[in-house]
Amino acid sequence: MMGGEAIIKALKEEGTDVIFGYPGGQILPFYDMIYESDLRHILVRHEQSATHAADGYARASGKVGVCVTTSGPGATNMITGIATANIDSSPVVAISGQVTTELIGNDAFQEVDMIGITMPITKHNYQPNTPEEIPSIIKKSFEIASTGRPGPIVIDVPKNVQEGELKYYKKDLFQTPGYNPNLKGNIKQIRKAVELIKSSKKPVILAGGGVIIADASNELKKFSDLINAPVTTTMMGKGSYPEEEDKTLGMIGMHGRKAANLSIEECDCLIAIGSRFADRTSCSLDNFNHAKIVHIDVDPAEIGKNIDIDIPIVGDGKHVLKSLISLIEEEKLNFSDTWIKRAIRMKTDYYPKMSYDDYPLKPQQVIKEISEVLNDDTIITTDVGQNQMWMAHYFNTNKPRKFISSGGLGTMGFGFPAAIGAKVASPGSDVLTVTGDGGFLMVCQDLATIKEYDLPIIICLFENRTLGMVYQWQELFYAKRFSHSKLGEFPDFIKLAESFGINGEHVEKVGETKNALKTAIKSGEPILLSIVIDKSEALPMVPPGCRLSEFHGDYKTEDI
Amino acid sequence: MESHIISTLVEDRPGVLQKVTGLFTRRGFNIDSITVGESETEQLARMVFVVNGDIKILEQVTKQLNKLVDVIKVRSLSPEITIRRELCLVKVKVENEQKRGEIIQLTDIFKGNILDVGENSLTVEITGNPSKINSFISLLKGFGIRKIAKTGSTALERDIKS
Predict the structure, then answer these.
(1) What's the pTM?
(2) Alpha-carbon span A543 to A46, nearest angstrom
(3) To 5 degrees, how large is the angle CA A136–CA A142–CA A145?
(4) Chain B contacts of A116, Cβ < 8 Å?
(5) Using a CB-CB distance cutoff of 8 angstroms, which residues of chain B are in contact with residue A301?
(6) Which CATH entry fits the domain spanning A187-349: 1.10.10.60, 3.30.450.20, 3.40.50.1220, 3.40.309.10?
């Protein structure tokens, strides 16, 4: 068995059924070995898409996503995707080719120090020196990528290691005594949290992406029911709790829903689970509310990093919530429903206005129509910018792993290739990506991929011919000096799609989104909807450094 | 800003030092010094850092170091029970016999060693905590210092007798 074959065997033993990749010189031996193997390979059209697709696959399925590229430029093209996965704690294993071991350090053709480059943006990385190391490295990589706080792993494989014969196939050559994620949570701390919750009058739960990663949605629901606390989420936590239910107030933060932001300001006890208190979530680290805060996170370094915490609990959402629930049940505690009733009223009072009959179309109306057609199992991916925040703000996600978006890194060009990964992971679910004209053009070459592999993804391109978020900030904070944020007339997105053999449709009026989506879902073919929206429509927002209640301008609410 | 001593046990592998120092750069932590060497366990090295910052920074440094897979153990050493040593080599000018004698005498007082005797210079070795070394260096300044080579601090905690 050669090194490349060992990669394939070890990947399959870890449960990998598909990899996303792009071949090149130093990974040729491996590509020669997958030629006749039964490991499915999706050829994307840019290495960055391979990483985003692997990431989308991981986020949709909870399994480790795998991508492969060649050395040098192929490897560096993965960097954005690896960094995206890293900050959003997504389990990705990225395999890059490397020049042969004797050439390393000689500045050989297409040589780059992938290990050095990826140190700050991976959970861990490896470079096998011999073919025998490969099985153990792959096993460890999957273990580290998917446990504790998940994250990406890079495996940089020199060409001669791919070609070398293994003397033996063993998977236990390495130990990692320095890697021991603590999942359970300290019971003394959990007891303290119960005492605090007991004494609070207005508890609020903030669910982050960690709840989804820990598969703790059921526990979250039970816990919030027990203590009568409304649930807010971060953007990464969207879907951890059904947003259509009364007591989910929605996303908080710079572009959060008003009721959610106000509840954070008003609460006297905040229970944050699997959230980093990122600046886009808290807006102002100094002006964040002065309630007592319980912070549950599997990564101890996140606790106390951004804001001061009263009760830190190191553990994953599922384990800690289970313990909290059983302690509260043991004590047969009852919690008043005065606050939750008030929170629900706030939600109704400040429900964002969704219905508009304007021309050009308002994004809210488009999102309303999208919601009316899709079921709860549809996977939504978004790009980054206004399209993303409109979706995060206005769209109700009711199940975990159904809202996939680049949170921490804010990577334009993420949404479409992530949808490819999500569709490959869940062929039975509808997959819809909401994107903008800026971000989509960064990755539009992968229209070829969805055509070739017959992946019926629905692309909703919000076309306003601007870099919307940049435009909005320039309007608000840079005296309307729209420096390089207007994108001009080109391309014609319909013709662009058609050149890849994909149908496109212009949407301009109320009702057309809904009809086009219905037809698209029925057809089972990929489609690009170019939805022309009002470029002057801005997002509700709290300017950076302000309190969460300090919305800029009017917050338009639905008349009920 | 206070200075803190952090002792870590790490995998003795290529790239580990880079991972650790890269982390300090990326997170904006200030390192005064690092020393690295073999530990009591085979294949594990002990790295000792002197870091500047308040308690919050110290906590973040410790937690972030702990996250590195190659880092086995991290401990912030309590200053009151920590034995801390640096090694310093000084090449000092010798103008005449009298000065030579004075330097040798000073070296004796500081329990240092003369490592090399040149025609116009002496090379002295001294170990101790940073303040001892600093006062030795400032005493030698009057003679004219040609070169200084210093290690950072390495440290262990004392066994506390109960």
Answers:
(1) 0.96
(2) 36
(3) 130
(4) 15, 18
(5) 60, 63-64, 66-67
(6) 3.40.50.1220
